[in-house]
């Protein structure tokens, strides 16, 4: 079977990915040759977004199972790939599913079947999240979103951006403010690209403009995605999300997080237990892209701190838009029962 999504293809057992570091100016597809290469692809954010990381790692391992006959060696590579990024739990969830299959009955057919199931499930989960979330959106609303949470971050329509796209497809008039999302600009480069394709009106803003926009433009909602949700509803998402949540509290703006059950960490009681990825200093001191490289701070002598994610406490969340429905502070404790779909 062949599979295609906005930024991933699995054709005759070969996985190719759309290199997201080159968007929006270059649409370059890259064949991924095996788990070692995939590790680098994930680490360098050529593939990114919590659900997409999980699905693409699973498909890479499906492809790898065609050349690795021994289940122990397959499992070792899977465990290695599991370490490529630490915060998005979807990666661990997808790889653990394949490891469980490998331990029980290792064969190309069984591994591929499970990876295809993970792909199909993500498409369906996006659709359910989008439907539930779109019900919350009224005609003529203005929404801020952060990072990229659409078809480039999943193999379906997306999570937060999927909700926005669904409401738009229902004929609701929307205006989106897109946080550029420093330091790697997933909003400025990727969400604008997707909104252009979806024909949804937006303004790109720098992250530090969100408070002023809320004050001036009567923003109705903020909707963001998640990389890991703890059982008490605390969640990790792209750095800058927590600041948005605090701004929402001050300005009385509803703050929603949208995610599939594969983003819930059932072993994680609170946000304090979520590992936050620390990335390289050069990401703060300059930028690499299709244009080459620019640098505005010295490589040596300028010390920096670069957490890729922050953790937003449940008390700042108006609602959790999940594939099973919309939860609030009085019902969020039910997520512990969502382990099985
Ligand atoms: O570092 P990234 O680009 O992988 O971070 C992505 C995010 O933080 C997204 O908001 C999150 O993964 C949800 S994507 C549906």
Summary tags:
16 strands, 2 domains, Four Helix Bundle (Hemerythrin (Met), subunit A), 4-stranded antiparallel sheet, single chain, alpha/beta, 10 helices, globular, Rossmann fold, binds 5-S-methyl-1-O-phosphono-5-thio-D-ribulose, 341 residues, 7-stranded mixed sheet, 37% helix
Description:
The protein has 341 residues and is of the alpha/beta class. It has two domains: 3-126, translation initiation factor eif-2b, domain 1 (Four Helix Bundle (Hemerythrin (Met), subunit A), Up-down Bundle); 131-338, Translation initiation factor eif-2b, domain 2 (Rossmann fold), CATH 3.40.50.10470. The protein has helices at 35-43, 50-65, 71-81, 89-105, 108-134, 160-169, 186-198, 210-217, 241-251, 282-285, and strands spanning 3-5, 8-11, 14-18, 29-32, 141-145, 174-179, 202-205, 221-224, 228-229, 235-238, 254-259, 286-289, 292-295, 309-312, 319-322, 325-327. The strands form four sheets. A seven-stranded mixed β-sheet has the order 7-6-5-8-11-15-16, with helices on both faces. A hairpin with a 2-residue loop joins strand 1 and strand 2. 5-S-methyl-1-O-phosphono-5-thio-D-ribulose is lined by residues 45, 48-51, 88, 147, 149, 153-154, 158-159, 186, 225-227, 237-238, 308.
